[in-house]
Write a structure and sequence with these properties.
Order of helices and strands: HHEE
Shape: elongated
Distance between the termini: 39 Å
Largest sheet: 2 strands, antiparallel
Strand content: 15-25%
Low-confidence stretches: none
Helix content: 25-40%
């Protein structure tokens, strides 16, 4: 892995401002006081709650898919797919 491959950089550079706004909104929702720039004075719990809130907002739909034996046609298989939406 090369040192120039930084996963902290947005794929779209102009998205940085939108990501910062999203982070500030998530922090406000969980009651963490963020300021612009460096926030090294946050506890791990506070920083984790902000990140967790961001993930929760981004990942609101879960899907599961698997193949099982068809109950009506012996020897056949059917794809079963469950979709669950998380509402907040």
């Amino acid at each position: 892995m090369s040192s120039s491959n930084n996963s902290n950089q947005p794929v779209v550079p102009s998205a940085r401002e939108a990501l910062n706004k999203f982070k500030m909104e998530a922090a406000q929702e969980v009651g963490v006081n963020l300021k612009q720039g460096y926030n090294g004075d946050l506890t791990s719990r506070e920083a984790g709650s902000v990140g967790g809130q961001m993930v929760k907002k981004m990942s609101t739909v879960r899907t599961a898919k698997y193949i099982r034996a068809d109950r009506t046609a012996i020897g056949h298989e059917i794809e079963v797919r469950y979709i669950a939406a998380i509402t907040v």
